[in-house]
Amino acid sequence: GMSRDLEGRHVMVTAGPTVEPIDPVRYLTNHSSGKTGYAIARAASLRGADVTLISGPVPLPAPEGVRLVPVRTALDMMAAAEAAFRDADIAVFAAAVADMRPKKAAEHKLKKGVADAELGTIELVENPDILATLGARKEHQVVVGYAAETHDVVGNAQKKLLAKNADFVVANDVREGRAFGADVNEVLFVDAEGVEELPLMTKERLADAVLNKALQYLR
Ligand code: PMT
Questions:
Q1: ipTM surpasses 0.90
Q2: DSSP class of residue 127?
């Protein structure tokens, strides 16, 4: 059975959104609820793994027995993920990381009528790609990427698999409000061998399916 099949293994998971400050009261973010990443962290812990969960701000409690590293920005998530990756046997990148951040977070609240130019044109710069950066450093780690797509799900997932040096990618179709925030999901596993379609299932069951797949790659 799969009861304690991750005993002695280190699993790291990124989860939730990142938030990128514009000023002390405003930020850019996305609809990730953290449910996917938290379900994986919980399942891995129940299966005996030593789990580090690096999470953007979400209103979920830390799963029991899991080391929670709370972060806000993509830069913070990058630093925490770098630290955890070295010792990880399985690294799951389920977070919805903001691709861009405001170039400069204003120190004081940008006031309407005073700072209209700044509020009307927020200059953005690129965030580091956490998965691609750590994928390039892969040694013994099994690297699991996610892809949230609105079209050409398989094609885009295959591109991410190669570009980010993942072992496999869990691909979501995020049209019509699916995946983000829901309790269930229907995904594809995309790896060098091909594509595996999974049926609609709860994120809890999906977490075990992702861990089962990752176990096949353990070196
Ligand atoms: O949190 P939930 O509400 O349960 O929703 C789950 C989810 C839909 C957010 C999740 O299943 C998911 O698909 N996460 C990835 C969303 C995403 O941002 O996809 P992407 O195609 O932009 O990124 C591809 C991969 O690169 C992902 O593994 C992502 O974590 C990673 N990435 C992306 C950008 C970046 N700067 N750093 C990264 O590590």
A1: yes
A2: P
Query: Is 122 within any annotated ligand binding site?
Result: no
Is 156 known to be catalytic?
no
* Cα of 171 from ligand 1 centre, angstroms: 10
* Residue 183, domain CATH: 3.40.50.10300
Low-confidence ranges of the chain (pLDDT < 50): none
Strand-pair partners of 143: 91
Which residue in 21, 4, 8, 16 sits closest to 53, CA to CA? 16
The pLDDT value given to residue 1? 52
pLDDT of residue 176: 77
From 146, 164, 205, the mutation candidate for ligand 1 (largest count of ligand atoms within 8 A of CB) is 146
How many domains does one find in the chain? Answer: 1
List, for residues 58-70, the tens digit of each pLDDT value: 999 999 999 999 9
- Closest atom, ligand 1, to C-alpha of 33: 3
Whose CA is closest to atom 27 on ligand 1? Answer: 146
pTM over 0.90: yes
Q: Is residue 106 part of a domain?
A: yes
The range of the structural domain enclosing residue 134 comes to 10-217
Q: Concatenated DSSP letters for 33-102? A: -SHHHHHHHHHHHHTT-EEEEEE-S-SPPPPTT-EEEE--SHHHHHHHHHHHHTT-SEEEE--B--SEEE
Residue 2 domain-assigned (yes or no): no
pLDDT in tens, 106-134: 999 999 999 999 889 999 999 999 999 99
